Amino acid sequence: MSIAKRFLPLFDRVLVSRIKPEAKTKSGILLPESSNLSSRVAKVLAVGAGRLTAKGDVVPPTLKEGDTVVVPEYGGMELKLDGESYSVFREEDIIGVLKEGAAVPAREAAKQAA
Predict the structure, then answer these.
(1) Which residues form the signal peptide (predicted)?
(2) N or C: which end of the chain has fewer CB atoms below 10 A?
(3) pLDDT tens across 1-43, in order?
(4) Residue 111 backbone class (left: φ over 0; alpha: ψ -120 to 50; beta: rest)
(5) pTM of the entire predicted model
């Protein structure tokens, strides 16, 4: 059973899985973790129903399952299920969505260094 079926975020929360950054350039240079901005890139696995307003109305989420997003380096709630690590963020804390084909900054820098 997938994590998205086992854990459903409430309200405006989003469950993500961080995408593991490449630790080595094509030429074999090892990159330190601190130089890798791509550690903030994640895949959306599940999205709550939306944010509740003061009047009780629900504002639907803008993110959807499968989106690739940039998340803050710190923050969110870490969650471990079946030995895998996940993060839960409020939708408003997610920095943005990476469009298909967009280059991840640290990976591009690594390619140029190679």
Answers:
(1) none
(2) N
(3) 577 678 899 999 999 998 876 666 667 666 665 555 556 899 9
(4) alpha
(5) 0.73
